Amino acid sequence: MRVGTDITEVGRIRELMARHPEFRSAVFTPQEIGYCESKRRTFEHYAARFAAKESVMKAIGKGWLQGIQWTDIEVKTLSSGEPAIAAHGTLIQAMDEKKITSFSVSLSHCKAYALATVVAI
Amino acid sequence: MEEKEIFEKVKEAIVDALGVDEEEVTADSALFDDLGAESLDLLDIVFRLEKTFGIKIPRGAVQLGILAAEGVKEEDVLVDGAVTELGAKLLREYMSEVKPEKIKAGFRLDDIPLLFTVQTFVKMVKVQLAAK
User: Fold this and answer.
1) For residue range B12-30, what is the model confidence (pLDDT) as tens digits?
2) Best of B16, B31, B38, B43 to disrupt the A interface by mutation (most A CBs within 10 Å)?
3) Lowest CB count within 10 Å: A121, B23, B61, B90, which one?
4) What is the ipTM of this complex?
């Protein structure tokens, strides 16, 4: 079992999205974009998802510079309202390598910061 | 494009992304330790460089770089996310801009960004410009 955690500044996410329009689709899946855009505090939700992706990378010990695609780590919202990690492509490959079968994720955010903690099981 | 010109543009991207003074940014400044970058800053810098030079920096660039040597298999250079003796040797060669004592067997692949210097980005840009 391994743990990963991350804190992300909401303002930095807002700024990066304004500066690099490609940031949104390079980092978030269409489902994540749809979810965040439907929320009133859009950027807090984006920041929380970004923190979750960073946390997953920390938990597996492999980051985007080592070839994990941001969009291969997807944060879903279950019908219970609980967040969950859906793995795709490069993340599935990394999970196989590290013998990880699933993730547990917890998110928290306020106006300034978003936090995520991920446990890789 | 000359290396000096590439360096100046890389430097400008880093100064703008990190809000540091120009004179702080030298070829061997380490992004995290010397310039105080965070992971989101790296993403910002990569996007800026891709735009400035009209290139795409592959996300597995460093790992691909150390695996590029002929006949090298992943298990020869990496065990449980850490580099082997051979992996360390290839990584030192590939990241020749980094002080060699920073890269020893056991060095973790996910810590590679901590080694990044301004020159690392200059090299990445050069490789991608040559491949254009």
Assistant:
1) 999 999 999 999 999 999 9
2) B43
3) B23
4) 0.82
